[in-house]
Design brief:
Length: 667
């Protein structure tokens, strides 16, 4: 039988939401490539998704439900029928709710697929009706999202194709070469047309190496840098006072917060030269259009929310809006408001909320213990801070843990029951981009592998087994249409989605900020000093909290994304041990050479791994990627065992980059 092709969309956690062409032979996926339905995809995709067939058919794929037979963490399971697995879960839930209430149950999910239908639909319906604990999804984008909402009401940003119109591009806290690769050729095209490039990042990322200016600041010091730029713009008459008078509030409050941050003071705090900061200010002030790409790297520390707010304030202060290729772009997920809002079909209960970054502490809390943990779309043992506490919590014999997953993850090893989940190639979904503006359908191209079932099918069955279903419940088969209805799609948009698999927002897929889209705040203005954010921040908005380094832990450990994984997804395909990266200066001071075995440690734990010496890091910073699994180090711990579970200044986000460590040679 000759190979055939089918089209679908990648819903994984990446800004680009590529449209895909899938080659099939005898019902199996043999190749995945990009197609052109989403113009951002432009016919190519990342290497991660190219290797996705290895995820679908690899030896780690879960093919049937199984029950634990050995000690927790041993990975010893025995196959059981779906009916038995679901009956056991329903029985456990029924007993726990009767004896301890719904607050004894914690659903845990985060971004494993990112499709609209695979999270926040039947799952929410089940757990809300049980009265379970609520989960605060704060491990990523919490602080940045709060800042963007506070200042601009999450106004849509500049589209990828409009980068070529910019005279200056600033990439701050983002590495498109690892995530969002389709932005890279857009930036290079702009450079070929004469655009200047500034990159703000502690590492020499691929784009930083091609930049006109690379500001390799100390992690956690983005706030002083952004405030110094703001101060200088006002002090030297480079602020756009006309724009601010018409379109902004909180101008004086922002100026007051920026006033102490001279260029010299910021340079000392950030570990930069004053000349470098002034060069950045001159480039930004004089360029038009000037475009700022704000990522999420700057939010992963104690100052993350204020830092993001200060960065996003710059285009308003400097008056960079109103022209194509000018302004900022961050997350564009808000382009599709209302999408999927009605799918749970059940009001949210006002039960206790659990911050996912403190899962380890919550699982070990004996005062009000969690007795059932239901994990889906997530791998918390590989992705959360204080990995030591998370593992201890999962080891509890009195905790009943269900892991509903595609592959045998680190977390699944500790489950009492594992359930096999479908991949995006095996179920229907809907996906909106947060870099690209398109809304796209995700169509199944193969039958479920083994006995895998979709999220909505399983949660719908549990609702029925627990007799929580209602006469007017929307069945899972109608969720796709309901989500489209929530988004208020026009007839044209619905036809595009049905015929092409993708559609654009009503304002188009290349909006100009303050022309085609405006701030979505209540008054339509930029709020440079939102009172609600100032009240939420423990020290007040735009207040810098100093470096938590100590004499015993002087090095900053960062854990950015790489080209190998999507968070921890596909981590099982990463072969071999992953090295700790270190600057030559720091290595020489510790008599360490490339290839040496080292331990990187602090009061929380230690990771043993080989070391790689590189000048791509600034001195004082070491790097171990996020997304690696316990198999990737020599002692079964990852960077997360070294990360505190403290909270960002806004939205209680994760502070991965506040990990302070020491490194020593072994042997």
């Amino acid at each position: 039988m000759a190979p055939t092709t089918a089209q679908t969309t990648c819903p994984l956690d990446c800004p680009d939401t590529c449209t895909l062409e899938v080659t099939l032979e005898q019902g199996r996926v043999t190749k995945i490539d990009g197609d052109f339905r989403n113009p951002i995809t432009d016919g190519y995709i990342c290497s991660k998704v190219r290797k996705y067939p290895n995820h679908v058919y690899g030896p780690d794929r879960l093919l049937y439900p199984a029950i634990r037979k050995g000690p927790k963490g041993s990975g010893q399971f025995s196959r059981i029928p779906w009916s038995e697995a679901l009956d056991q879960i329903a029985h456990q839930m029924r007993v726990l709710v009767k004896e301890y209430g719904g607050s004894s149950i914690l659903p845990f999910s985060y971004g494993g697929s990112n499709g609209v239908l695979t999270q926040g639909a039947m799952d929410e319906r089940l757990f809300r009706r049980l009265g379970s604990l609520r989960l605060a999804h704060t491990v990523c984008a919490a602080a940045a999202g709060a800042a963007a909402k506070g200042l601009y009401g999450k106004m849509p940003g500049v589209a990828y194709p409009d980068f070529e119109h910019a005279e200056l591009i600033v990439i701050w806290g983002a590495n498109p070469s690892a995530s969002g690769i389709h932005l890279v050729p857009m930036v290079r095209k702009a450079q070929e047309k004469g655009a200047r490039l500034v990159v703000v990042d502690p590492r020499k990322t691929p784009l930083a190496k091609k930049a006109d200016l690379h500001l390799a600041l100390k992690p956690g010091t983005d706030l002083p840098l952004a405030l110094a730029v703001t101060r200088d713009l006002f002090h030297h008459g480079k602020a756009d006072l006309t724009f601010l008078g018409e379109h902004a509030t909180g101008v004086d409050a922002l100026k007051a917060k920026a006033e102490p941050w001279t260029v010299e003071r910021a340079a000392e705090c950030c570990g930069l030269s004053a000349e470098g900061i002034r060069s950045f200010i001159d480039l930004y002030a004089s360029a038009s259009p000037a475009l700022l790409r704000c990522g999420w790297g700057q939010e992963r520390n104690r100052n993350g929310g204020s830092a993001t707010a200060a960065i996003l304030a710059l285009p308003a202060v400097a008056g960079k809006f109103g022209v194509r290729g000018g302004g900022y772009t961050a997350s564009n997920s808000s382009a599709w408001s209302g999408l999927g809002d009605s799918l749970a079909a059940e009001p949210e209960q006002k039960t206790r909320e659990v911050n996912m970054n403190r899962l380890g502490r919550e699982l070990l809390d004996e005062q009000d213990p969690i007795r059932l943990l239901f994990v889906y779309n997530a791998n918390p043992l590989a992705t959360l801070p204080r990995q030591d506490l998370v593992r201890r919590g999962l080891e509890r014999e009195d905790l009943f843990t269900v892991v509903f997953e595609q592959v045998m993850t680190d977390t699944a090893q500790y489950a009492d029951l594992v359930l096999p989940a479908t991949t995006f190639l095996e179920h229907q979904d809907l996906r909106n981009g947060y870099g690209a503006f398109t809304l796209q359908s995700v169509k199944p191209v193969i039958d479920p592998v083994g006995e895998a079932r979709s999220n909505n099918e399983v949660f719908e069955q549990l609702i029925q087994l627990l007799e929580l279903d209602k006469a007017d419940d929307l069945p899972s088969s109608r969720l796709f249409r309901a989500a489209i209805s929530d988004a208020g799609l026009t007839t044209r948009q619905q036809m595009d989605l049905e015929q092409k698999g993708a559609t654009a927002p009503e304002f188009g897929d290349q909006p100009v900020q303050f022309v085609d889209v405006m701030p979505r705040t209540a008054d339509g203005k930029v709020h440079l000093f939102p009172e609600a954010l100032d009240a939420e921040s423990p020290q007040g908005l735009y207040t810098y909290q100093p470096d938590p380094a100590t004499e015993d832990a002087p090095l900053t450990l960062i854990s950015p994304a790489t080209r190998k994984t999507v968070s921890s997804t596909l981590g099982q395909l990463w072969q071999g041990t992953v090295p700790l990266e270190m600057h030559p200066t720091d290595a020489a001071a510790r008599s360490i050479s490339s290839g040496d075995e080292v331990r990187v440690f602090n009061a929380f734990g230690e990771v043993k791994a080989p070391v790689r010496i590189t000048e791509d890091l600034r001195p004082g910073v070491v790097f171990l990627p996020k997304g690696i699994w316990t198999r990737h180090t020599h002692n079964g711990w990852t960077s997360n065992v070294l990360c505190p579970d403290t909270a960002t200044d806004l939205a209680a986000g994760a502070c991965f980059n506040d990990a302070r460590v020491e490194v020593e040679k072994l042997g």
